[in-house]
Amino acid sequence: MQVTSLLKDHEHGPGCGHDHSHSNVGIGWMLFGLVFVINAFVVDWVFDAAHVVAGASAMIGAIILGYPIIGTAIKDLKLGKLSINELVAIAVLAAFASGDYKTAGVVAFFMLLGELIETRTAEGARDSIESLIKLTPTKARRIKADKSEEEVPASQLAIGDIIRIRPGDNVAADGLILNGQGSFNQATITGESLPVDKKSGDEVFAGTLNLTGVLEIKVSRAGTDTTLGRVRELILAAEKTKLPIMKIVDQYMAFYTPLVLVIGALVWAFTRDLERVISVLVVSCPCAFILATPTAMVAALSAAARLGILIKNVADIETAAKINAFIFDKTGTLTTGELAVSRLNPLGETKPAELLRMAASAEKYSNHPTAKALATISSEAGVTLVEPRDFIETAGRGVTADVGGANVLVGRAQWLKDNGVKEDFERSVDLNETEGWSLIFVARDGKCIGWVGLQDQTRPEAREALAELKDAGVRRIAMVSGDRQPVATRVAAEIGCEEAKGDCLPQNKVDFVHAVKAKGYHVAVIGDGVNDAPALAAGDIGIAMGAAGSEVAIHSATIALMNNDLRRLPFLVKLSRSTRTVINQNFLFGVFFIIGGLSAAAFGWLNPILAAVLHNAGSLIVIFNSARLVRKGEELEHYQQEAIGSGSGAGGSRHAAAGQLTPKTA
């Protein structure tokens, strides 16, 4: 009967976040009082002449159960508040004053039971969120100056400390890997369905689970400053926000109690039946109506957090349900933002594997993105590299090295020509560099043996995600990019995006967003949250991709995706619409429940005990209806540890990113 919201301040213990008091009665006290009430019914039923004993037992039970309710109502009145607490208190007092102690006791028990259900629901829903984000270990293994270990509380870790992480350990703080490699379950942060392999120089996050390998990590952020800590604070802050409809309900609840008292007075005036008045006061407690929105919102926040979607204000859930236009940034959002080998073109009798082996071996010690792309594709293709000798790199042009006794050149066409390669090898190129291709040529002992085409790859799930958005009723999908128009057009064609605009400066992106909104669309802007922050702010909602580890991204967007899985976007739209549907269902049920209950009580079809039972039943129906939202997105469920085979090594390729294009010959 107390809960008008599931939002509370943790420092103040159980509560609802609204300005009325709570009885805070334990289940033991309730059962103690119920024993006396049940004893009264049993005595009346077994002994014909024991009405006095039964009445005394019922009176004791009614006092035990009614005292917390009346005490709470008096506290509200002392504070100058008139809430639904007073309705229940008047009903219990009226039954008690009329001498119907059994009715007073049963009504008080069921109303306290209703409060207990609602409080436990609030705490349980909140705990389901907390369980997602309270995974930081309390202890850490810190490495001392003499290289020995000491176990310290995680709260004592400071920036610059070196900690050791063993297989099965949760990471105690954000940091960079100094030594070792391992496979990490990052589901608590990113919602990713597979573990991620990491090595020296990579960043790890607090609360993630190390599955394999022993690592030494240098702490970069500790305590509440970690990614997990910031996510936790933002989720708890989101719990305290309210939808506009919730604010309206709170505003008019002050008038609800006087209205019910007037209705009760009218029923008494026309019927002179105190039992009907008590039933009116009991059944009018609007718990089902009040729980309609908070239960659905907490369930939606829980489902979103499980999949790495950080919603900072519950009002954004309602906004997301109205979105009918999506505007994407290109680089790092629809594409990976990293070069990848997409084409191998050997010349003459050279085999593709030989071309790849020569190029990757020569580039082995280069830090250029091209070298990393060649190393990655070689590892995935199982090509064994040769140790290069006499390695020389000329910045911006290419490399030269001795590979297996052959002089190998890898670089731009002009680099090969400047180093004595005379043939017209560029005639074999059938790709247009203006469409985003990066070409490198490979020569062995003065003769070109082929070329490699690289490009910024589109994300493998991008086409599927955009198709799902269209199926969900999104009417306009556009892509804006600072890259050249031919590049934007090519990427758009690959992923099925109908509209692409290239050569955009940050202000051009903002202008494009405003132009789409001016046509009546509700716009969501999706980017990396860093260089496109102005465009994110210009949309009705801004969604930052891959926000794990990026404080700027988390704070620049209204919604942050902790990983780069674009399939979270159609899920977010569907979750928002389902949440809106559930809230509407709950509200309609709550309204009809109160109207129907008041009518039945006024006409004498509902006694006080049945009214109390129905009051709890209504609350449970709303709670269970909202709980359906928690299971949303199970098809995208985050990774479970037991799915990992014991033979999964830290450096293996079994968890390599899906969707890598296979090199093909020309």
Describe this structure in words.
Helices cover 47% and strands 18% of the residues. It is α+β, with helices and mostly antiparallel strands. The protein has 4 domains: 10-131 and 235-300 and 579-629, no CATH class; 139-225, Calcium-transporting ATPase, cytoplasmic transduction domain A (Distorted Sandwich); 301-329 and 459-569, HAD superfamily/HAD-like (Rossmann fold), CATH 3.40.50.1000; 336-458, Calcium-transporting ATPase, cytoplasmic domain N (3-Layer(aba) Sandwich). α3 packs antiparallel against α4 (101-133) and α13 crosses α14 (369-381). The longest helix has 35 residues, at 568-602.
Number of helices: 22
Shape: elongated
Tally of domains: 4
Distance between the termini: 73 Å
User: Into which percentage range does the β-strand content fall?
Assistant: 15-25%
The count of DSSP E runs of length 2 or more, i.e. the number of strands, is 22
What are the segments in which pLDDT stays under 50 over at least 5 consecutive residues?
Answer: 1-22, 638-666
Strand order of the largest sheet: 10-22-21-20-11-18-19
What structural category arises from helix and sheet content?
A: alpha+beta
State Rg. Answer: 33 Å
Oligomer: single chain
Helix content percent band: 40-55%
Mean pLDDT: 78
Biggest beta sheet summary = 7 strands, mixed
Q: Which key features would you list for this structure?
A:
about 675 residues, alpha+beta, Calcium-transporting ATPase, cytoplasmic transduction domain A, Rossmann fold, 4 domains, seven-stranded mixed beta sheet, six-stranded antiparallel beta sheet, 22 helices, elongated, disordered C terminus
